[in-house]
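Sequence in, structure out.
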Amino acid sequence: MARAFATKAEVKTAILGIQKKLSSLMADIASLDKGPIIHEEDVIALESAMDDIEERLPKLTSFLIPGGSPAGACLDHARTVVRRAERRFCELAEHEDVHGTDRRFLNRLSDYAFLLMRLEETNV
């Protein structure tokens, strides 16, 4: 929904890229006995994209209230869902061997959703 509602091409493209990576993440979790599909390079690329966005956004001086736009609201919801998935992944890690890159990717993904929300709702 966030991609459908997004008004900025950059945000739409970023969301589509994440949607493609989520298929790899799901395959990683479903096939823990195989090598990871999400690699450290994916985590680094995500962090680099986040750094680029953060450099262009104004500094935060207060808490943000979600829902400034339909896409922003969807991205904030996505951030919440990713945080929940990360907690569930940590629970899984207590009982199964997991790929560490998946955990790091999930952790960074929720912050990325927050930055995409800010980018969508900011005039930069």
